[in-house]
């Protein structure tokens, strides 16, 4: 009976030690699953998201581009988040990430990625604006206005007409009656003037006759 009890105690002690060992292993393994080194690379930048690295300030991160430091070695606690702008490039760039965990090299990370070349956007076609000509316009002669307000045109030499060049030939036909009256000085008013003169002479003769008769009656 006593032997049975002693063996049972030894078994219980062994079980306790084994459970404690398993628990300690589990606790020590937990940080390994918690370390999360996430990073992405585009044609223009590198994004870093490092989480759950513990509170030790011995954690470090370094980023290089073609062997040159883009992010010099930097210490961080637990989490580290940062975006790094890449330099302009016409060919692919080799990006290297180095993360050193304070709790052991087994949690560290060394990784490489490639940054592609950014595609250049084609600018929209621009409408060319015509440039105004700097040549002054040709001056046109302004015609001088005539006294009547009409625009005078340059006079042209008159061509001699047939009447100017040919001598006048006397006409053998008699001229009309109107022409004779114009030459003698008579007109259509001559009969009226003659009639009025006759009336005046008759009136004068009557006055003279009346005066003589009066004188003879008085004597």
List keywords for this structure.
about 220 residues, alpha+beta, Immunoglobulin-like, four-stranded antiparallel sheet, three-stranded antiparallel sheet, 4 helices, 7 strands, rod-shaped
Classify the secondary structure makeup into a structural class: alpha+beta
- The 3D shape can be described as rod-shaped
The appropriate CATH architecture of one domain is Sandwich
Cα distance spanning the termini? 231 Å
Q: What's the number of extended β-strand segments?
A: 7
How much helix, percentage-wise, in residues? Answer: 25-40%
Give an overview of the whole structure:
The protein is α+β, with helices and mostly antiparallel strands and 219 residues long. It has a domain at 32-115: Immunoglobulin-like. Helices cover 34% and strands 23% of the residues. The chain has helices spanning 2-34, 162-165, 177-184, 190-218; strands spanning 36-41, 45-51, 59-65, 68-76, 80-85, 93-100, 109-115. The strands form two sheets. A four-stranded antiparallel beta sheet has the order 4-3-6-7, with no helix packed on it. The longest helix has 33 residues, at 2-34. The protein is rod-shaped. The protein starts with a helix and ends with a helix.
In short:
It contains 4 helices and 7 strands. The chain is an alpha+beta fold and 219 residues long.
């Amino acid at each position: 009976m006593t032997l049975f009890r002693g063996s049972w105690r030894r078994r219980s002690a062994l079980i306790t030690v084994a459970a404690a060992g398993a628990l300690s292993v589990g606790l020590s393994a937990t940080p390994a699953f918690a370390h999360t080194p996430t990073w992405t690379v585009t044609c223009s930048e590198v994004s870093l998201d490092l989480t759950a690295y513990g509170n030790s300030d011995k954690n470090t991160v370094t980023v290089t581009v073609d062997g040159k430091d883009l992010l010099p070695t930097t210490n961080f606690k637990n989490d580290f988040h940062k975006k790094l702008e890449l330099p302009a490039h016409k060919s692919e760039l080799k990006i290297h990430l180095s993360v050193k965990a304070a709790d052991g090299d087994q949690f560290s990370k060394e990784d490489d990625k490639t940054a592609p070349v950014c595609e250049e956007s084609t600018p929209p076609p621009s409408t060319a604006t015509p440039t105004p000509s700097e040549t002054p316009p040709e001056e046109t002669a302004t015609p001088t206005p005539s006294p009547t307000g009409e625009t005078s045109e340059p006079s042209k030499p008159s061509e001699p007409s047939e009447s100017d060049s040919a001598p006048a030939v006397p006409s053998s036909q008699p001229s009309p009656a109107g022409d004779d009256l114009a030459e003698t000085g008579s007109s259509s008013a001559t009969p009226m003037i003659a009639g009025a003169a006759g009336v005046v002479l008759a009136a004068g003769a009557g006055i003279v006759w009346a005066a003589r008769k009066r004188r003879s009656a008085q004597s």
